[in-house]
Design brief:
The complex is a heterotrimer of chains A (547), B (246) and C (140). Chain B is of the alpha/beta class and 246 residues long. Chain B is built from 10 helices and 8 strands. Helix content of chain B is 39%, strand content 17%. The radius of gyration of chain B is 17 Å and the shape is globular. The chains are: A alpha/beta (547), B alpha/beta (246), C alpha/beta (140).
Chain lengths: 547, 246, 140
């Protein structure tokens, strides 16, 4: 008797359904809630023209040679306490072969306040280095040749001021701005959406961003003027698709703003860079990175009509997810970070920061910071993952998830457009509400044990051994406050006041503010004074409460 | 201040003890001027209220705000988030801000609002500003309590027609079309004009004031002035002028 | 429709310090709302003076503080001190954020009633409040 051949997938389906399944009540969707099938096959991947690395739409990477040409840059972010202490750490890092620096500023600096402001109390030097004026910046980069290194500065609302300080230090070293290389985060939209380190209202904030992009295109052409960041959106509790969609939407808003200023797309597009989170849901993250490149390339070419290939390529930095780290059994964070870093590498990141295991508690100790860097070196040199370009390309699952990410992002773009664009959506609290909803859903899932965080809601231990953490000397605050008042005393007061007055006047007009800020910086106006001059014209912003 | 805050709590709880307190305070109490702000969520009511506080403070008036938000019908809990927009007045001793849960009461205000206004008057506040729940429906109570009712609309939320259906047209002494710098503003104004032309003639024709909140103090003050003066209801025009000139 | 509590406990929830990380504070605010509390959310970058002022005007019984910038040893005690200055020590202060164990002990000595660190189940916070304010909690 001859049996008619049955569809093998059908057979598998029946066998799967007949098999016992785990009844642990755990979610089988991604951490972002995307439902997953137990198996993906050819049927889940649409037929499309073969995608190749280095070729539009760059789903498989922007370089034809992947990591065979060049490994990702291992760029660890650091900065603490005073400019002098951080300067010593930088010199140590550079002596050990690091070629790029990445500056972490303390909260008062990030919020445009001087160290002696009343609201700076308890904050000086805690989350990064305290910079109040050009004098501190001179100390920070003392003996470091700015023409030979690249520097990444994580700062947003006062970004233009810190960039001007960097330019001014270079001037003193005799290095022209055209030789300076580095990256400024300068992404104010995600501040309104997620990290909330905003100061001015959205429209003057955007003006400052465009001013710096326009100025750098002319004067500091090797500088990456903005790092459009999904990292903080994700850390605020968003899903992977929200991170992807909101970040790319921000990117398009910057493009629109620059075009409105009269710039040409190909003159600035290749200086836009991105910054994503690498979270713990492995495949979802890889799909997110792949989708990001494909979407951006298409929008840049199709919608914005960019002609140059380099304008189509989405380059990004990645940091492993701080929010996935736990204070409980903190050594587990090493394993989490390794998995996340692997996702970033398989997703084709250009540079990577791996978190230290104790970052959830305080600033990293030397030992924890070293393990974090070693984790990247282990991936690069031991595991062999860098040998093949986009090794998961063609995986039914990863390709299907990449398409799903793209679909969800496009749906968000549509909704944002319906609200009237990114800024109206910020003012209406749209992003904030979406993120808060996602964060709350995830928390509920944890409480119901539908998701497990090892060491937190399962596999806990009773007696946690305390781990060693780095503490900042409380005397530092008054010392730094002393330094800023000394700067105020010693500088040419009339020159400083004049520069601030000219800045105030320019802010009320339409000139590019960068030259005015640079003049104020050169006159040793403090960061707080420069911000205050602009606040007098621009006002400050309070967000709509979206809980 | 704590005595006032506690008294409002007693009123909210419908505590019988509040009667005595009120009797005691009634002598010498003046009745404050009351302006009400209503409109859908996201229209920027709180930001406008913030601007009006600044304006009234410049005029030398003391100002109290009663901002109402809904309670969950299931748990009774609430998140009251209107203060956040008014934080620049936080340490001004002549500004008192109280967030109230509607606690199941429909109509856009708390059941305790009227009594709370009386208490505020007794404690010497010149002006009271009410902010309604802002679900955009059946929030008509504010018109009965306030001297001037400001209805806030925005171009981008597609809410204008809903509001009009809900009877908001009739209660407005003034319309604020907020976020007037974004597209669609002209359409909302045109829609409102059409609706008003279709409605029965009344002695007071509410002006339509375009507003852009968050533009800095000076413009805020100008905006608040227009809302309160232009928006002066026919019947109480003189009163309001007196009040703002204090 | 469930009966609304006649006397809901009112909690002022605030972010002190300069950082803007509000994921935790928002999740907690929602959980407290869902547990029947009236939560007055005052938003970011509140100074101790602003927090206490809000708590007094709002007649709150509890203040919940959140911080992630590392300034908790300065700012949490400053809120407690401000309550003393305003003669309002009956208001209970609790806090949350990335706070090392040693600091928790020190903060409790300074008058902060409880500290919840990341990973604390929301129910634990609610249970703690229920124990502190049994008489005013809604009957299910």
């Amino acid at each position: 008797m001859k049996v008619r051949a049955r569809d093998p997938k059908q057979v598998w389906q029946e066998e799967f359904e007949a098999s016992p399944s785990r009844d642990d009540g755990l979610e089988t969707s991604t951490i972002s809630g995307i439902p997953l099938q137990p198996l993906y096959t050819t049927a889940d991947v649409p037929r499309r023209e073969e995608e190749l690395p280095g070729r539009y739409p760059y789903t498989r990477g922007i370089h034809p040679s992947g990591y065979r040409g060049r490994l990702w840059t291992m760029r660890q972010f650091s900065g603490f306490a005073t400019a002098a202490e951080t300067n010593r750490r930088y010199k140590y890092l550079l002596a050990n072969g690091q070629t790029g620096l990445s500056v972490a500023f303390d909260m008062p600096t990030l919020m445009g306040q001087d160290s002696d402001a009343p609201t700076s109390r308890g904050e000086v030097g805690h989350c990064g280095v305290a910079i109040d004026s050009l004098a501190d910046m001179e100390t920070l980069f003392d003996g470091i040749p700015l023409g030979e290194i690249t520097t990444s500065m994580t700062i947003n609302s006062p970004a233009a001021i810190l960039l001007c300080m960097y330019i001014a230090v270079a001037e003193k070293q005799g290095v022209p701005p055209s030789q300076l290389g580095g990256t400024l985060q300068n992404d104010i939209l995600k501040e309104f959406i997620a990290q909330k380190e905003f100061i001015f209202p959205p429209s003057p904030s955007m003006r400052l961003v465009v001013d710096s992009i326009e100025y750098c295109a002319r004067e500091v052409p090797k500088w990456n003027t903005i790092s459009i960041s999904g990292y903080h959106i994700r850390e605020a509790g968003s899903t992977a698709a929200q991170e992807l969609a909101f970040t790319l939407a921000d990117g398009m808003a910057y493009v629109d703003a620059c075009l409105e200023r009269g710039m040409h797309i190909d003159d600035f597009a290749s200086r836009l860079s991105f910054f994503f989170d690498a979270h713990i849901d492995f495949f979802e993250e890889i799909a997110k990175f792949r989708a990001a490149r494909r979407i951006w390339a298409r929008w840049m070419r199709e919608r914005y009509g960019a002609q140059l290939e380099r304008s189509w390529k989405l380059r990004f930095h990645t940091q492993t997810a701080g929010v996935s780290l736990t204070a409980q059994q903190p050594e587990l964070n090493i394993a989490r970070t390794a998995v996340e870093a692997l996702a970033a590498v398989l997703g084709g990141t250009q540079s990577l920061h791996t978190n230290a295991m104790d970052e959830v508690l305080a600033l990293p100790t030397d030992r924890a910071a070293r393990i974090a860097l070693r984790t990247q070196q282990l991936l690069a040199y031991e595991t062999g993952v860098a040998n093949t370009i986009d090794p998961l390309g063609g995986s039914y699952f990863v390709e299907s998830l990449t398409d799903e990410m793209e679909r969800q992002a496009e749906a968000y773009f549509k909704r944002i457009e319906e609200i009237g664009g990114v800024i109206p959506a910020i003012e209406a609290g749209f992003f904030q509400k979406e993120i808060a909803d996602a964060a709350f859903r995830y928390q509920k899932e944890l409480e119901q044990k539908r998701r497990i965080v090892v060491g937190v809601n399962d596999f806990t231990v009773d007696d946690e051994e305390p781990i060693e953490i780095l503490r900042i000397d409380p005397r530092l605050e008054s010392e730094q406050a002393g330094r800023v008042s000394e700067v105020r005393r010693k500088r040419d007061g009339a020159r400083c006041t004049n520069a601030l007055n000219r800045l105030r006047k320019a802010a009320a007009g339409t000139d590019n503010l960068m030259p005015y800020i640079l003049d104020a910086v050169r006159a040793y106006a403090t960061e707080g004074e420069i911000m205050q001059a602009m606040i007098e014209v621009f006002g400050t912003y309070t967000e709509t409460a979206v809980v | 201040m704590r005595a006032l805050a506690r008294a409002i709590t007693l009123v909210e709880r419908r505590d019988p003890g509040v009667r005595e307190l009120e009797e005691a305070l009634r002598t010498g109490a003046k009745s404050p001027g009351v302006a009400g702000f209503t409109g859908a969520p996201g229209t920027g009511k709180s930001t406008l209220v913030d601007a009006v506080i600044a304006f009234l403070r410049n005029q030398g008036s003391s100002v109290a705000v009663l901002a109402t938000d809904p309670n969950s019908p299931f748990t009774g809990g609430a998140i009251l988030g209107d203060r956040i927009r008014m934080q620049r007045h936080a340490l001004d001793g002549k500004v008192f801000i109280r967030s109230m849960g509607a606690r199941g009461h429909l109509g856009g205000l708390s059941l305790a609002t009227r009594e709370a206004i009386r208490l505020l008057g007794a404690f010497g506040f010149d002006q009271v500003i009410l902010e309604t729940v802002g679900v955009g429906q059946s929030e008509l109570e504010v018109a009965a309590v306030a001297d001037t009712t400001v209805v806030v609309l925005t171009p981008n939320l597609g809410d204008s027609v809903q509001m009009i259906k809900a009877g908001i047209l009739e209660i407005a002494d003034v319309f604020a079309v907020n976020k007037s710098d974004i597209d669609g503003h002209a359409r909302v104004v045109a829609e409102l004009r059409t609706m008003m032309n279709m409605a029965p003639k009344t002695p007071w024709r509410p002006p339509i004031v375009p507003t852009i909140a968050t533009r800095g103090d000076e413009e805020d003050a100008g905006l608040a002035e227009r809302l309160l003066r232009d928006g002066t209801p026919y019947r109480t025009a003189e009163e309001i002028l007196d009040r703002t000139d204090n | 429709m469930a009966k609304v509590a006649a006397k809901p406990v009112r909690i002022v929830v605030a972010k002190v310090g300069l950082d803007g990380h509000d994921r935790g504070v928002k999740v907690v605010a929602r959980a407290l709302r869902d547990a029947g509390y009236e939560v007055i959310y005052t938003g970011l970058r509140q100074t101790p003076e602003m927090v206490v002022d809000a708590a007094l005007q709002e007649d709150a019984q509890v203040i919940g503080l959140s911080i992630h910038s590392g300034a908790h040893m300065t700012l949490f005690p400053a809120v407690v001190d401000e309550l003393k200055r305003r003669d309002a020590t009956d208001i209970v202060v609790f806090g949350g954020g990335i706070i090392p164990d040693d600091d928790i002990a020190a903060l409790k000595k300074r008058g902060v009633a409880e500290i919840f660190t990341p990973g604390t189940p929301l129910q634990e916070i609610v249970d703690w409040l229920r124990k502190r304010f049994p008489e005013q909690t809604r009957k299910p």
